[in-house]
Amino acid sequence: MAASAFVPVAVFVLVVGTIGWRLLALWRRTRERPELLLGLGLVLMSCAAIPLAGVGRIPGVAESLPGRTCFALGMGSIAVASWLLIAFTQQVFRPGAAWAKAFAVAVSGVVAAAVVWISSVNFTGATVAEIVPRMRPGTLALIGCMFVCFGWASAESFQYYGALRRRLALGLADPVVVDRFYLWGVSSGANTLLLAVLLYCAGSGMVIMRDPFSLTAIAAVGTLMSAAWYLTFLAPYRYLAYVRSRTR
Fold first, then answer.
1. How far apart are CA 199 and CA 118, in angstroms?
2. Sequence spans of domains, the chain
3. Does the 3-247 domain belong in CATH 1.20.1070?
4. How confident is the model at residue 2 (pLDDT cuts 50, 70, 90)?
């Protein structure tokens, strides 16, 4: 595969990592749990999970012990980042709901089991072509869990957005807060779509961190997600002024 296929993914990683670090800086001032959970999740995903998993699937490296080790570490980072993002959704939307806590714990358990499966199988077989079919159950379970979780986040966000829009019409809601729920719903929905594509790729036997189709999908949807996340958490003054003036 041409090295240029990684360029848009690298841009996505850079943008998401920047947002994550800035959220952690915001957490140092606010000490609020959502900023910590999301900031850590994004930093871990961008600075460890995607780079390590990508390096572990470079042709000529993937079958070596260092390559397999990088891939296993990347998958472990994906598991921890996933737990943080699941906890973020539960804390923001359903902090007092017992069912949401139970759901988050159950999904996190499935993610852990899937990553253990993928990482252990990664050290068997002589080639990636042999390894990928053995990984498929764990890969499908991992992506399926994230598909459900981001779909949940999108549904919750749009539900809050609809309720706040009705309050906004009566002057009882902040337009910036309303806009943030909309943006988070859009970004979570876009990620749900991406995960559906990755489910297809994994089910078809593609190597996600190597195949041009899956990498292009990650880069395209990731660009939209990065823009929405930036405007949700780190919007510049001009954008906030535009949202408020549009409401008036």
1. 15
2. 3-247
3. yes
4. very low
Rounded CA-CA distance 151/145 in Å is: 10
Burial of 129 per CB tally in 10 Å (0-12, 13-18, 19+): exposed
Mean pLDDT of the chain: 87
Q: What's the rounded Cα separation, in Å, for the pair 9 and 13? A: 6
The structure tokens listed for 9 are: 């993914």
The average pLDDT across 131-153 equals 91
Predicted TM-score (pTM) of the model is 0.84
Q: Dihedral (C-alpha) 216, 190, 136, 120: value to the nearest 10 degrees?
A: 90
One-character DSSP codes across 125-154? SSSHHHHHHHHHHHHHHHHHHHHHHHHHHH
Share of the chain above pLDDT 70, in %: 96
* Predicted pLDDT at 112: 93
First to last CA, the chain: 51
